[in-house]
Amino acid sequence: MKALGITAMIFAIIAILVPIAGPYLTLVCALLAAFAAGPGLTFGIVAILLNLLNVIFLSPSLWLTAGMVSADQSNNSDAVLAGIGVIFVGAQVVALIILSIVHMLWKKSV
Asked: Can you give the pTM of this predicted structure?
C-alpha cells in the first residue's frame, strides 16, 4: 500500500504543474490515496492535502472556467462555484474518510 501512497503523492505534485487537466488529475490521485493504508498512510495524507491546496489555491484554470460560465449565466454563478467545491473538494474529503476506514481495517488485521 506504500506504492499507492507514493504514486498518489507524485500525481498530486504533477497535478499542480499541469494547467487544465490538473484538477481532474486530483480525482485520480484521491482514488489512489484512499487506499494507501498501512505504511503508505503518510504519503496518502500528504497527497490529499496537496490536492486540496491545488484545488483551492493553485488552480487558476478551475476558477477561470467557473468565472467564464458564471459570466454567461449571471444567475447561476453561485451554483457553479458550489458544484466545483462539491466535486473537487468533496472527492478529497471522501478519500480522506475512506483512507481512515481502510487504515483502521488494515491495523485491525495486522
From this structure: 0.82
